[in-house]
Amino acid sequence: MNKRFFMNKKQIPLILLIILLGLIALIVYLLKSETKTEERTIVSHAIVVQQIEEMGKLEVVKYNIQDMMEYEKVRKWLPNSTATLKIVGEVIGCVDLTLIGENDIVTKDDSVSLMLPMPEICHYKIDHSRSRIYNVEYGLWETAEVMEDAYKKAEEQIYQQAQSMGIEKESRENTIKVLTPILRGMGFTKIYIGFKSSDSRSNSEQSGIKLN
Q1: pTM for the predicted model, two decimal places
Q2: How far apart are CA 71 and CA 89, in angstroms?
């Protein structure tokens, strides 16, 4: 009996050592797990920023505009030059995603909040192959200049028309429609998309699910 008791007493330090090593291994594992979790969150956020920036200027709406325009160049001494134009052109609205910074994207678990610059008209032009100038009167020696100036005014006209038709509002709506499935594909189920106005105040349009 004494011999068996003596052997058990020798085994006690060994058991304590095993338990101590097990606790140390558990603490190291938990610390590593916590570190990995933090790193995964940061990497996920960086990936969102990078993937959105890579899209560059995102074209979200295109207006094809056709109109008739009356042009008149006022002269002081000679009769005014006049022309009638058939205008065919296009106006494209886009969002410059390269302007997004890390502070504009907030991720938490399966939620993402994204603040974008306001959409803008990034491209507009006259389609000269489909546009026509009719009835140029009193162009005289300035006929070529009158036609060139008429087309310039026509480009300004389609720009103004697109604005009056609500291209900026439609651009915001289409941006949300385009980006929402992309963000869902990244694993986010709760999505908020807003727009920053030029005076830095938030003018929000959202996807229907707002972050808490």
Answers
A1: 0.64
A2: 17
